[in-house]
Write a structure and sequence with these properties.
This protein has about 450 residues and is mainly α. Helix content is about 55%, strand content about 5%. Helix 5 runs antiparallel to helix 9 and helix 10 crosses helix 12.
Length: about 450
Amino acid sequence: MDHDRNEDQNPQSEWLIVIKKELEKAGLDNEAFFVRKPCIYRVPRYLREADWRSYTPSVVSIGPYHHQNRHLLPMDRHKWRAFHRILDRQNHDFNLYLDSIKELEPKARGSYEGEINLDSNEFVKMMVLDGCFVLELFRGIKHGFEELGYAKGDPVFSICGSLDSIRRDMVKIENQIPMFILDELFALQSVEGHESGMLASMAITFFAPLIPTDEPLLESRAVSQFGPHPLHCLELFRENLVSKALILPKRAKKLWKRRLSRNVVGKPTTQVTYSVSQLRESGIRFRKRKTDQFWDIKYKNSVLEIPRILIHDGTKSVFRNLVAFEECHPECSNEITAYLVFMNNLIDSAQDVGFLHYEGIIEHWLGNDGDVAALFNGLCQEIVADLNNSYLSGLTDKINKCRDDRWSTWKADFRHKYFRSPWALISVIAAIVLLLITIVQAFYDVFSYYKPTS
């Protein structure tokens, strides 16, 4: 009997029991990951450490990740104002909204990476308040905030005030709620009927000022080019930017899905490794491409056509969050990352930015051209991407081949030295004429010397 008791208390047996329990827990975790469909992520540490401000909301929290941040709590009273205005306008009881979202709670929780430490009531309340707040902003931009019953010059629900900061917060990767939550709330309060694509259209109109071009997409065209069920506002905004990429052959699109390698030094890439100045010396010319798709770069006959891009003080944050989503979401392709790496390689200095600005390719509202160069260089510091199969890989192969061609380099160097201005051209022509005259003169001198006298 004592022998059996001692065996049960054997440390080796207790160790095996602990391992068995951990394996059982791991099995449950594996099953849970099959059920969960995360699409809203926390920013990876290696990205956050480089620029945490770009990923942290400044005025409003949307969703659970920043729900209790103290500096964002003042906006909660405005969320309650939005919910009250909706209930009053629709003549609804608040329980209708809570009950509807309660049914979607498991699916909503599964949309987030990691566990959400909120009880059921708190989580549902947060989804309702945040969702109604977002919808009021969408509707206010479309119909006018005063039409919705808000005072002129309202600090939040007006075209002035903190709206720009709110808009930027709403495309941050950690500051999202699932689109199906917005869709459910929109259906409950929609007085104009719940037509397919209407919510996406309103969202695109709301986020249009963040599009890095001065020629935003027409919302009717944009909505028709991606599916009716975007994951959240950030993905919808991204799909609006790159929607034309969807007309590429499906096989080609699959080739450059998920081709990123995180922090792998020395990973091969076919991205351009030459700056604007170096490419110009190789005979490559730059031209503004006339399109509203800023990423749609073309190269033909030594001419690199790059669409116009508009840089403002919110551009860095927008691009960082788009890249973070492309890094985190397994089903997301890498158009934005490939474009930024391409532009980063082109821009080495303020002089490169100045030339692209002169050509109408870059327009910016920053302090100087050096700030723009620092922006592009900083965006790609933490990304070491394998972009051999990106949408730009074929184009960059052609550019690199042209740059490495010695004959092209010699011709470009000759043009740069002797044909950079009309006066230089005149000097070259005069030198050639003088050389020809000298040759002819020498010929006649030699001819007259050897010609026999008559």
